[in-house]
Design a protein that fits this description.
2 domains, alpha+beta, 45% helix, PH-domain like, four-stranded antiparallel beta sheet
Length: 182
């Protein structure tokens, strides 16, 4: 489930670019055949080259993610995990995705957590690890504080910047409505 979700996320990033560029190639090929104007031919060829480059990037990312997900031990354990943004939290470890990179982390591998609010109002918790920085998008500042508390509970030496951790520090406290019966 998690594997399909991440692969679908990668595919969805290109859902407009690939068909749009392919349509552009055919439109300019049609215009060239109807008018005989060589400018249309060159524009069609240029769009075709851009389409080829986008496809190379798409398939490279798709195969890289697939290869990295195969290396994750017991990937099916994340099917019941708490998901926030592109991060999946379990009691002992977490899985995260950042463009072209899959992070399989134990909580003691996280060195620091930094809260960031972008100019567009998006909220992120940036997890600093040996593998790099994993940005986890949050819905609310309270949720970011609960996640920071959970990570701090799992790793007491964790440096938390930009936010005051709050909450119970349990996996259930990150997303308290997740397993609630309706």
């Amino acid at each position: 489930m998690v594997k399909r979700y991440i692969q679908s996320y990668v595919s969805s990033k290109y859902v407009f670019a690939l068909p749009g560029l392919a349509l552009g190639v055919f439109v300019f090929a049609f215009l060239y055949t109807m008018s005989g104007n060589h400018v249309m031919r060159y524009i069609g060829i240029a769009i075709g080259l851009v389409l080829f480059a986008v496809m190379v990037v798409y398939y490279r990312e798709k195969f890289t993610v697939s290869r990295q997900l195969k290396k994750v031990p017991d990937l099916n354990a994340f099917n019941g995990a708490v998901m926030i943004g592109m991060a999946f939290f379990l009691e002992g470890r977490m899985l995260g995705y950042k463009t072209g990179q899959v992070f399989d982390l134990k909580y003691d591998q996280i060195h620091s957590v930094t809260f960031e609010e972008t100019s567009r109002g998006k909220l992120f918790l940036n997890l600093e690890t040996d593998q790099g920085t994993l940005p986890v998008e949050m819905a609310l500042k309270d949720q970011a504080a609960r996640v920071a508390q959970f990570l701090h509970t799992k790793n007491p030496s964790l440096a938390v910047n930009g936010i005051t951790p709050s909450g119970a520090g349990t996996l259930h406290s990150i997303d308290p409505y997740r397993n609630e019966k309706k």
